[in-house]
Design a protein that fits this description.
alpha/beta, Rossmann fold, about 250 residues, about 30% strand, 12 strands, 4-stranded antiparallel β-sheet, 6-stranded mixed β-sheet
């Protein structure tokens, strides 16, 4: 059986308003896909629903991970199976150090106690990739962090937890070019046959550094076009209006 994350005819509502209207998308394990689209297209909603956000109601459809229907699973159950969501707006958690958070999260991810040396090695490798000093581990989770630091911390979690499928929701927003390169390096270091990512972004800029295998475009709650990396370049050059016209005439 091909290992993949598969979204099948997904319809989702929020406050009695239908936001996703029959989304179909397949992310094979080992590939990095980009999800683009104008504001309000439903991109971030899709990411949250895949991760199990209870604020959204699945009206119809399925979310399958390696053939298993995870549509009704709780967020923590999805995470233990290897799903990860990097938030667009990471929350602050005063009183909880990054080190303690990572240790607990890794224990939950692996389903076992993690020896100190194993944990330390994972964290050290991640910090080196992200060019971050070890002192960051003693700070409280995202408390007083800049936008760039919060995004880098999301990638630190990604590198330590090593999920199978990652949803990266506008990880590039608010980053300067140096921070963008560091975040991209972290994601690229994960690439391989046992890791996939769905990179949600508005802009081609991020995709200059995380080059996707496939690009999907969402409009009005559904995926309307899928292509290679050149599709993102075309959107950067021409905007979305030409695609809206193409979809309307189809």
């Amino acid at each position: 059986m091909e290992k993949k994350l598969e979204i099948k005819d997904l319809w989702v509502s929020h406050d009695d308003q239908m936001i996703l209207k029959g989304v179909n998308l397949t992310l094979p394990l080992g590939e990095v896909h980009a999800l683009m689209g104008p504001n309000g297209a439903g991109k971030s909603t899709l990411g949250k629903v895949i991760a199990g956000d209870p604020n959204y109601k699945v009206e119809k459809g399925q979310i399958l991970m390696d053939g298993e229907d995870i549509t009704v699973l709780e967020p923590d159950e999805r995470a233990r199976k290897g799903l990860f969501l990097a938030f667009q707006y990471p929350v602050e958690v005063p009183g909880v150090s990054i080190a303690n958070f990572l240790r607990l999260a890794l224990k939950e991810r692996l389903g076992r106690d993690v020896p100190v040396m194993e944990f330390y090695q994972r964290v050290q490798e991640a910090l080196k990739t992200l060019e971050w000093d070890e002192e960051i581990l003693s700070r409280y989770l995202n408390e007083g962090f800049s936008g760039g630091e919060k995004k880098r911390n999301e990638i630190l979690q990604l590198l330590v937890l090593k999920p199978r499928y990652a949803i990266l929701d506008e990880t590039d927003s608010g980053l300067d070019i140096d921070a963008l390169k560091i975040v991209a390096r972290g994601v690229n270091s994960m690439r391989g046959p046992e890791f996939s990512a769905l990179v949600i972004t508005h802009y081609q800029r991020l995709l200059n550094y995380i080059v996707p295998d496939v690009v999907h475009v969402m409009m009005d709650g559904r995926v309307v076009k899928t292509g290679g990396p050149e599709l993102a370049l075309e959107l950067e050059k021409r905007g979305y209006d030409w695609l809206k016209e193409e979809v309307a005439g189809a």
